[in-house]
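Encode chain A's predicted structure.
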Amino acid sequence: MTGYAAVQSNTASSATEAESGTDTHSRLGVEIRSVNSRFLDLAFRLPDELRQAEPGLRDLLTAKLKRGKVELRVSLDSSSMDSLRAPSTATLQRLGSLEDSIKSWLPQAAALSVADVLRIATNEDRKPHDHSAQLLKLAQKALKELLSAREREGARLGIMLKDRTVQLRALSALAVPLVPKLVEQQKARFLERWKEAMALPDSKALPEAAQDRALAEATAFAMRIDVAEEITRLASHLDEIDRLLDSGGELGKRLDFLIQELHREANTLGSKSASLELTRISVDMKVLIEQIREQVQNIE
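Encoded structure for chain A:
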């Protein structure tokens, strides 16, 4: 089922960072995207410093989601807000010594700039901030918004699916009276051909043996084209689909099975067709069932 959610949070610097002379603020963002899939396929896009949070995020998603191709993307932007840290004498001495050592081997190496020294001094001794707890809270909030979006889409899909089941029931109702009508037509056609074969005038009745044979042929024909069982099973499957849609919960896989059964009955009805009208009904049923199948893949 498709859905999208995005949340952001600002996290202030830790006490250790504040004492060191840097006031670092981080903007943490979480996005969750979900598209249709019959199975659950998770993908994570995390900064390197947050890779350790992936198992917890995976457990969070798998506990709530059962189907869909889901991507969770995390962004982390940090900025230093106040004065830069002044490099200590020991740091400057160490940098100078390292620079002299490197130049002895690489005379063409560029000298350290003031910006390079300030950046090294600012980052020196800074302990990485652990965003795991904040990340999980944001992910829970984003997941809640995603589930709400998917729930709204599910309600719309339920209305559409019920509309398709109503149309399938209407087609089934059209097919029911066609079989007796076709049987009578077949019986009349057999009697007409018998008269032609015996060269009997229309006013003269057929022998009793011929009428018995016509009845037997009509009975056999009725058995071949009888679709009462298929219509009954179709109605039963449609009732179960409506019941599942009303009950809610995790019903995607059960709906998948019922759609397969609907398609099987529509195929059988088409194979027994003895008229263009029944064939048209079978084709229209398959079109509706395929529309249901496409949307059922979106339902969890």
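Residues 3-84+133-146 form one domain.
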